[in-house]
Each structure stands twice: as structure tokens, then as C-alpha cells.
Amino acid sequence: LFRMEEEQKIYEEHGVEEYVKYQLEHEDEPFEPGAAFPFVKVRTTSHRAHSLRPIPIQPGHSSTELDLFIERFCMTGGRSLIGYLKAYHTNLYLSSDPGKVGEALGEGIAAATIFSPDKVEEVSDTQLRVAFDGDAVLFSDESEQIVKAHGLDKFFEHEKEHENSPLAHVGHACTPPPPPKLQKKFYAKGQRLECPIRTYLVTARSAASSGARALKTLRSWGLETDEALFLAGAPKGPLLEKIRPHIFFDDQMFHVEGATEMGTVSAHVPYGVAQRY
């Protein structure tokens, strides 16, 4: 949420007491916005009526200065935060620390490791744009397992054979889907393009050979994706540069790295068979 690299370094090298001392000495100095700041701010400013409550785990005195609406804080004094996340029924936990992300996922909490580009592309401050990969992020990694074990030809054959069988939902999918009621409210008024949430499925799948199953799966869940982009293995970074999402979720680091290089804030979901390759 905030740029706290210096504070984190003090904590790791000198311990919690020096960390607290440093924070008190600088408590009137606002933090710089971090990688997730635009994502969180547009959620809170656009959707306050829909009970979206960001919960910073680290000190967050800068939220007022940065005009960020936050209702809850959780300052753990160095203790593990996972129990608090579960108590708050947290939908999504983002951290730059992959160890904490792995701990959260192990408890069934949706989580991802966030990466910030050197230069972040400007994003909308009125419409939340979220881009997802499909397999192992929204869906289970069952199809990805076939690719890794048997190759693309077997994968295409499997997807064609199971086109009408929805993919399983990832129990701790990387982020909650947009509120269907909010979407439907705008769609019913013929204002789809004005909806304050816009979602993008950005997948390496091919539209011709394996895309139908992905779309039918989302439809079976009662979800609508505003844009579905099937790249047939092409790099995702250039397309994401055009979309300019607030955040992009993928389970494969080379896609995360490619997106980050093109200026997109990206989050790695360390789940599924791709983590073993």
C-alpha cells in the first residue's frame, strides 16, 4: 500500500524496537504511495457503498494525508498476521513478501505477491480495472497440468472433449470477482461501459481451440467478464499496456515479469503446477 522499504530494512536489520522508534520519529511524514495504492484507492473511493474495507497490516497514518478511506487497521507488533486476516474474513491479501503470501494461501486466504514496475503507467481514478489470467488463478490448474505433462496437442484434445464441463473454481482464487449486483445494475440501464468495475480475462489460451471452455466456465458461475483476450501464447505485456489495469494477476512469473516491464503493477499467485517449473 505504501513505500516502506526503508522501514522494512530497519525492522529486518535492527529489530522491532528500532522500527518503532523510527516510525515515531517520522510519524508526521506521509509515506509515498506503493504499488497497490491506486488499486486500493479506486476501490474505496468508487465503491464505499459496497462494503469494501481495506485493512492495512502495517502502520498507516499516511492514509489521511493521501485521502485514502480506510476503516480498519491491524498493527500486530511483529506477530503473525494470518489469524487476524481470517478473523476479518479477508478476501484478498497482497504483499511484497512471498513468505507471507505463502502463509496466507496455506490458510485458504486469497493472496498474491505484488510487483511494481520502475515506471507505473497512469491508470483510471474512476474505474477499477482488474486483469486476470485464467488457469490456476480463476480456474483450477487441471488443464495446466495436462500441458506440463503431455504437451499442447493433448491439452487441446482434452479441452475440446470437456468444452461443456466447467473448470473447477480455485478455492482461494487470487481475488474476489466484482459484485454481480453492481455490474447488473449498470448493465440493466444500458451503461455497461460506465460501470465502475471493468474486468479482463487475459489468457495464453487460444480462442479457436480452448477458449470456449473458459467462457462457459465463467458463465456457469454467473459471472460476466467485460473483455476476454485469448493470446494463443503471445506475450501479455504489450496488451496490458493498452488496457492499463490497476493490477494484473498471473500464476507464472514470466508473464508477471513481462507485464511489469511494460509498466503494469502485477501480482504473482503462487498456486498450481506452474510453480514446479
TrEMBL record:
One Pfam match: 5-nucleotidase
Domain of life, per lineage: Eukaryota
PANTHER family: CYTOSOLIC 5'-NUCLEOTIDASE 1 FAMILY MEMBER, CYTOSOLIC 5'-NUCLEOTIDASE 1A
Protein name: 5NT1A nucleotidase
